[in-house]
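Quick illustration for those who missed Monday's session on complexes.
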Amino acid sequence: MEENQLMESGVSELNSNAFFIDPVRILNHSYTRFRVSPSTYYSRFFDSLNSAQSPKASEDSRKGKRKRKKKIQSLNEREQIADRRHQEVKPFLLKAHEALLEATDLLKVLRNLRNDVCSVGECKELSQESSELSFMELGGVWQAPLCEIVLNYQQDDKTLQNGGFPLAQSIEQKVTPAFNNLVANEGSYDIEAELFNHKYIIPKRSCFYMSDMQQIDSLIPAGSDCGFNLIVIDPPWENGSARQKVRYPTLPNRYFLSLPVKQLCHTSGALVALWVTNREKLRDFVENDLFPKWGVTYAASFYWLKVKANGMLTGELDLFHHRPYECLLLGYCDGKDTHSGNSTRLNPIPDNRVFISVPGDYSRKPPIGELLLDYVPGSMPARCVELFAREMIAGWTSWGNEPLHFQDSRYFAES
Ligand code: SAM
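Prediction with S-adenosylmethionine bound:
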């Protein structure tokens, strides 16, 4: 039952408040000609499959270790608040994880997520392709305005869109600036794009704006009825740990106060979803400074629980600085016509909902935007934007200094 749901939609309900998701299957809703390669998505957390220990046995041994660790910890005031938050959410996380461990058929599917779409040999080749472009370097040089991206539309896209039959295939090219420019694929098919001899796959009906934060105001719609109803934000928070590897530049918290969230909102309002780390200092900043400055009213918290391919958590639940879960804070930003009654029609957002998945690359978040649509104000289809995005999704605008990062053709296989 659960595995059928997973195969079809990429989402499987574990209980009324917990879901297992396969990001690869969800992302693949955006593509027709290409498909996201599971082996390049799931670049980590599949080694443990070789472990002889069952998920249940290792869970029990973890519980023992956890108990020993907790006793020797002495927490400062801020850590105590963080621990209280953790203790509050822990029953929801444990219940969700237990439901996963009981779903034996789903666990079988989980073990095969990495290699069920393309053969291992095929996927290996993909992951060994050439190195990636550094968009941050390219976007920072004076020649950046001259950099152009070539969008290759297959001629039959247009014929099919007009309800006709595909003719012999030919390519129609559109050349447009790659940086500080809204680049859109308005067609109903994913297309290939070229930038400096690198190939990128652009989903159907999607667009990106690649720029530094200083240019984000260019995203503000001319008319507020063209604004966004769903705004997902995953800022480059400073992590405070010098030892932790940094794969992208980070910014001090105060920089995010100037994000024009309110101006990006649609007249009928927006659901704002903000990824935060488990650091109490950051949670305090978001609650007391950031959300009030953006005009966002807190509504609920969702949690992303990370598991390995054998169903075990990626780390100890009680380990202070390396929790195997992340939090998505949800809130509403009023639009101009909030008195029109839109807000009263909204479904209430359930608090403490848990999504479980095997993580992809470093800091890559699972694509849960679709799962938020029930709580988005305004008429459908919702207008959706992701800020600080590293990938694109059909129907979405992706903004950041590297929104093409995971669109590199090395992350895809041809259908
Ligand atoms: N949500 C993304 C994902 O799932 O892959 C991860 C986003 S990551 C936490 C933050 C992103 O912000 C990185 O791509 C980083 O390069 C980008 N970033 C950092 N400084 C920036 C700036 N000044 N302007 C625009 N983007 C910036």
